[in-house]
Specification:
The complex is a heterodimer of chains A (405) and B (261). With 405 residues, chain A is of the alpha+beta class. Helices cover 56% and strands 17% of the residues of chain A. Chain A folds into two domains: 3-52 and 271-403, no CATH class; 67-258, no CATH class. A six-stranded mixed barrel of chain A has the order 2-3-8-5-7-6. In chain A, strand 2 (98-113) and strand 3 form a beta hairpin. The radius of gyration of chain A is 33 Å and the shape is elongated. Chain A starts with a helix and ends with a helix. Chain B is an alpha/beta fold and 261 residues long. Chain B has a single domain (2-8, 45-69, 85-251), classed as P-loop containing nucleotide triphosphate hydrolases (Rossmann fold). In chain B, 36% of the residues lie in helices and 26% in strands. Chain B has a six-stranded mixed sheet with strand order 6-7-8-3-9-10, sandwiched between helices. Chain B has a four-stranded antiparallel sheet with strand order 2-1-4-5, with helices on one face. Chain B is globular and about 50 Å long. The relative contact order of chain B is 0.18. Classes of the chains: A alpha+beta (405), B alpha/beta (261). At the A-B interface, helix 10, helix 11 and helix 13 of A face helix 3 and helix 4 of B.
């Protein structure tokens, strides 16, 4: 029997029980749709996490004062007094694997502009800070090495701060009071949005670290040194060079612990990516279960169909259909069900992903891989769950089948 | 064209079926049923045979084996020089497809499938172009006088018409033999005679027909009577007084059969 004829008669058989065929397909439709939508959500989350982490700069190292192994000693990291401006300068000068260095300190406080005020975090940074963070200035400019050296009373506002302090006018050239120190606004940072932990990265004021150290916090030590390696590949090398240098500068004996900690952004990135990957797999497996249930639905309906059409099978056998002809016929019917369901399900999954993106504002990414995967899976399910009923039909005894009422 | 082929076949006289010492035992629960206890029989080309007997006589079992739907426990069945008693399921299906045409008591047409497609059914299982299959099916329907009903569904046809579709289906692959199992069992007397008229017409052009019936009236239209009892042949004799269905129909009162569409 020609394949085309079998396919045509399969469609006819399925049309005879439209409602039943549709409900059977619905299982596959929902299963495939769910797999595609869940993969889209998972991959969207993965992408946005990667995006945020690479925005942070993947070749960034942060040197903190104090050891990771503090044991029972409870010391606030801010009170650590091991990192100095000279350490930062030495790293810049003596570590060849290091590209940029930005000494960092922080001071919280109320910022006042005219009759408006806003509580935010004031970060003291070096002139290369934006290079390391891969951040840009939207309006105006960033402070220079000159400003840092002279502890100039200038600052750059994050977007959130700028919007809150200067809702109607341009902040450039205006003066804000950082606690009691007046500072001239010379730039506004481009919008960065939330970070991976949900914090608003634009709620910030950047000022030369010298200014913050000497005029605001009056605390001579650095809270951190932000370093970028020359490339993501030289991170371990940079880490080693910095460790060696700082141990030497801090005169640490070879058996003693470091009095500083270096944290690596790509470690954080790897952890975060792994987490979202697990999320994707989890979501897709749950959706896969519904696809499996859909397959069982196909098997169920095909078994009913074989029983109902026992007489038809007998007639076909009596006029010369071989077992394998009957097998093919029922297998193709199951395949048509799962294939049609798969196609509609892909539409549902893709549409659903866009709907989720639009309504819940989640990033979703529908990949060709997820479509091919679920489509292949639905074919496999049709074959797998269609085979048993089809075989049952093929093994019927023609005499019994003809007599079946 | 079909007529010519059959005419040629009937021309070459010879044995079509040779059955020797056929035994068939069934296992029915714990009881072993001896349905056939040694049946031997020859059928020549162009014969028109009626197989008769009460229910339980073994005639249905015999018919199933004759139709290659079942295989004997012992004995041999040679159909056109092929020993079909030793064939596999698939090989039997191939024989059914090419050499045997079935007509059943309950018509056994596929519902919600047009008369034409029902007739095409056997041709779906052999290599044939769509055009040739269609042409052959139309030809077979013309032969039973239903060319104008080819797109009707079985439920739109009368019992007699349905049986004629079934006969067309049995003829469509030019079988060596047509097996009819109680073909008039579900039909009224006039329609029964009409169906027998078709069989007589087919036999006249050379088609071999074996018909199972328990109605002596129907058997009178055939040329040879074989009577089964308890799994054995009790009688096997030619019918000296074959009735001609066309003549019988002329004498029968006209009733409005076949006009109910």
């Amino acid at each position: 029997m020609k394949t085309l004829n079998i396919i045509r008669s399969a469609f006819r058989a399925l049309r005879r029980n439209k409602m039943r065929s549709f409900l059977t397909m619905l299982g596959i439709i929902i299963g495939v749709g769910a797999v595609i939508a869940m993969l889209a959500i998972g991959q969207g989350a993965e992408y946005s996490v990667k995006q945020q982490i690479s925005a942070l700069g993947t070749n960034v190292l942060i040197v903190f004062p104090g050891s990771q192994q503090q044991g029972g000693l409870r010391v606030g990291a801010g009170s650590m007094t091991t990192l100095t401006e000279e350490d930062a300068a030495a790293i810049q000068k003596e570590c060849p694997a290091v590209a940029y260095v930005s000494p960092g300190t922080r001071s919280g406080g109320q910022v006042v502009a005219g009759n408006l005020n806003w509580g935010t975090s004031i970060e003291g940074t070096g002139a290369d800070y934006l290079e390391i963070r891969k951040w840009t200035v939207e309006y105006g400019e960033y402070f220079s090495e000159q400003d840092v050296k002279g502890a100039a009373k200038v600052c750059v506002l994050g977007r959130t701060v700028a919007d809150n302090l200067f809702p109607e006018s341009s902040p450039i050239g205006q003066t804000v009071r950082l606690r009691n120190m007046p500072a001239k606004v010379i730039g506004v940072l481009s919008k960065k949005g939330q970070n991976a932990m949900g914090q608003d990265q634009d709620d910030i004021i950047l000022a030369p670290y010298t200014t913050v150290l000497r005029r605001l916090s009056h605390f001579p030590y650095l809270r951190q040194i932000l370093v970028s390696a020359t490339s993501p590949n030289t991170i371990p090398e940079a880490e080693r060079q910095i460790t060696e240098l700082l141990r030497m500068r801090h005169k640490i004996e070879s058996f003693d612990q470091d009095d500083f900690t270096i944290r690596n952004q790509s470690d954080i990135a790897a952890t975060a990516t792994a987490t979202t990957e697990i999320l994707t797999i989890l979501l897709a497996s749950i959706a896969g279960v519904s696809l499996l249930v859909g397959g069982i639905g196909i098997m169920n309906i095909m078994l009913v169909s074989v029983t109902e059409r026992t007489r038809e099978i007998g007639i076909r056998m009596s006029v010369g259909a071989r077992g394998r002809d009957i097998l093919t016929q029922f297998l193709i019917e199951a395949l048509v069900l799962s294939l049609l369901g798969g196609i509609v399900g892909i539409g549902l999954g893709v549409g659903g992903s866009y709907a989720i993106s639009g309504l819940a504002n989640w990033p979703t990414i529908v990949t060709a891989f997820s479509i091919i995967l679920s489509f292949t899976f639905s074919i496999a399910i049709g074959l797998f769950f269609g085979f048993y009923p089809a075989r049952k039909a093929a093994l019927l005894n023609p005499i019994d089948a003809l007599r079946y009422e | 064209m079909i007529e010519q082929q059959h005419a040629v076949q009937s021309g070459q006289n010879g044995t079509l079926i040779r059955i020797a010492h056929l035994v068939k035992n069934y296992q029915l629960g714990e009881v072993e049923v001896h349905a056939l206890r040694g049946v031997s029989l020859d059928v020549q080309r162009g014969e028109f045979v009626a197989i008769m007997g009460a229910s339980g006589s073994g005639k249905s079992t015999f018919m199933n084996i004759l139709g290659c739907l079942d295989t004997p426990t012992k004995g041999s069945y040679i159909l056109e020089d092929i020993d079909v008693s030793k064939l596999t399921r698939d090989e039997l299906a191939h024989i059914r497809n090419g050499k045997i045409g079935f007509v059943f008591q309950g018509f056994n047409l596929l519902s919600r499938t047009s008369a034409l497609e029902n007739v095409e059914l056997p041709l779906l299982y052999c290599a044939m172009s769509n055009a040739e299959r269609h042409a052959r099916a139309v030809g077979a329907l013309e032969k039973v006088g239903l060319a104008d009903r080819s797109h009707h569904f079985p439920n739109q046809l009368s019992g007699g018409q349905q049986q004629r579709v079934a006969i067309a289906r049995a003829l469509v692959n030019n079988p060596s033999i047509v097996l009819a199992d109680e073909p008039t069992g579900n039909l009224d007397s006039r329609t029964s005679v009409e169906v027998m008229e078709i069989f007589q017409e087919l036999n006249r052009i050379g088609i071999t027909i074996i018909l199972v019936t328990h109605e002596p009236d129907i058997a009178q239209f055939t040329k040879r009577h074989i009577v089964f009892r308890d799994g054995r042949i009790r009688a096997d004799k030619p019918n000296p007084a074959q009735r001609i269905a066309a003549d019988v129909l002329r004498e029968m009162p006209e009733i409005d059969e076949d006009t109910d569409e």
